[in-house]
Automatic annotation (TrEMBL):
Residues 1-94 bind DNA. Residues 232-249 have a biased composition (Basic and acidic residues). One of its GO terms (biological process) is regulation of DNA-templated transcription. SMART domains: BTAD, Trans_reg_C. The lineage of its organism: Bacteria, Bacillati, Actinomycetota, Actinomycetes, Kitasatosporales. One of its GO terms (molecular function) is DNA binding. Keywords: DNA-binding, Transcription, Transcription regulation, Two-component regulatory system. Residues 232-261 are annotated as: Disordered. It comes from Actinacidiphila bryophytorum. This is AfsR family transcriptional regulator. Gene3D superfamilies: P-loop containing nucleotide triphosphate hydrolases (3.40.50.300), Tetratricopeptide repeat domain (1.25.40.10), Winged helix-like DNA-binding domain superfamily/Winged helix DNA-binding domain (1.10.10.10). PANTHER family: TRANSCRIPTIONAL REGULATOR REDD, TRANSCRIPTIONAL REGULATOR REDD-RELATED. Belongs to the AfsR/DnrI/RedD regulatory family. Residues 1-94 form the OmpR/PhoB-type domain. InterPro entries: AfsR-DnrI-RedD_regulator, BTAD, NB-ARC, OmpR/PhoB-type_DNA-bd, P-loop_NTPase, Sig_transdc_resp-reg_C-effctor, TPR-like_helical_dom_sf, WH-like_DNA-bd_sf.
Amino acid sequence: MGVSFGILGPLQVLRDGFPVDPGSRKQQTLLATLLAHANARVSSDVLVEALWADDPPRTARKNIQVYVSALRRLLDGGTGSRIVHQRGGYVLQASPDELDALSFLQRARVGSLTEALDLWRGPALDGFRGVPPIGDAARRLERRFLEVSEDWAEAEIAAGAGAAAIERLTEIAQRHPLRERLRMAQMTALCRAGRRSEALAVYDDLRQALARELGLPPSPALGRFYQSMLREQEDTEPRSAVPRRERSHAPNLLPWDLPNLTGRESEADEVADVLIRGRSGPVVVSGPLGAGKTALAIRVAHRLGDHFSDGRVFVRLRGEDGRLRPLEDAVSQLPFARARTPGGRADPRREWQTWLSQRRALVVLDDARRESEVRPLLPETGESAVIVTARPALTGLEGAYRVRLSTFTPAEALQFLGRVIGSDRVTADRESAERVVAACGLLPLGVRLAAERMAFLRHVPLREYAARIADPGGLVDELCGSDPAVRSRLTEAIGDLPGPAHRAVFRLGTLAEPVFTLQQAAAVLEAETGTAIRLLETLLEAGILTVVGGEGAADTVRYEMPRLPFAVFVSGRHTVFEPVESRWHTGAS
């Protein structure tokens, strides 16, 4: 069996099924932090914060190395195969068979809800929830646990097994008394089991708790259900009071909505309005890497739950390595897959189309590069709708409505910065705050990374941080160092460009400034004007470049490579982009 871990409850380490002592409190905290972010790099800065909060010793990083060595001896005999050092941090590698949280998420995705819930032993990471990096991860797991519990309860009720689910449902509802969807399921199960008086008591408890804690009444749906029980209408179907978006066959398979999403209100309203009006074609949200396309699509999809009563689903078109996922793999976690025969069906596209055509669902297709990647997943008929996020505008996609995102405005960037690091800190040194967001090129991804870094470095004055990132090399070190995926995402952004366009990106990155003219581009590309224009237009279509300002003659247009990608090229670390022989060039069409 080997070593396995449990974080869905108190921290647990098992070897061949038997408990293992994970060591001192500090060592356990480090292990819990790595497990809470399994298979992702946790920077040394985050580990220092987890272990010592605001008062780390001078030897903090050395101590971390000692704790990691001890854990390696415990978990893999000191080989280091389990805990890997990676770019100023550590990655704990685990599979769903080895870590209960990963198994829970996997089972929930494929609809094995009872099996997923059976993995829980108590509050996630119990005993470590006061540690900020751990507490955030624990709360995310708890939120997913509640969603799965609600899906499970509604599925059990729909299958006629609500009476058997009452005990577990009541236990969960008592721990989360203000969760209305959970309370609705509890009341429905009790009512169907002939325990109407207990269902009425649940409503009364909820009404009092909402008034006491939030000053709010129960939702209209709950109020209608309560009135129907009072009238004892035998022909009332209790489940009909459940909002359609919360039915067992109406899944919400969206990632979490970002709480700090700033700006984009007009674009979000535009996308939502188009979807509500029921256009037949998809809505394509395009823009350069880091412009916030995915965040906007997720925000809109969360807002439109009432309009898509048969569910909202999120499809990642690419894997972690940036490669296009096979169609069957991309849709394997989606609702229709639950009804497959054991051997699977021969045509996943037809299976998907059948599911879409019979429902009113909203689908987000994330990170498309070509029209051919999107077409097999678009509904052929019915009321379902699709949002596509893509760097290129996908101009060949028939009937699409297009919304293009650019950078933040200076006001939006400062507003976002204030939300993360505190508006008082921004107001106290607005000039330095403006220099910070300008250094990030007002790109939402760059501003977010800088804000998160400054929130951690609370002791560093804004003016000092602005000086750090004024140089492109400093910008990359600061921002990519705080997010292990950024540098790989930037390099992957040019991974499937044609060879000439790939080499053009490399050469444009040698310019002194990220904004340049056609003449400057042609000179560095060593190309005729016509050839340079075609290369630049290829990069515009791919979302690598943007045009500054409005329309104009070709020789007066100014092009821009967003500052964060540009900084990678001039930071002295651009050898991964070398043309022709580059691994990114391999397989480019």
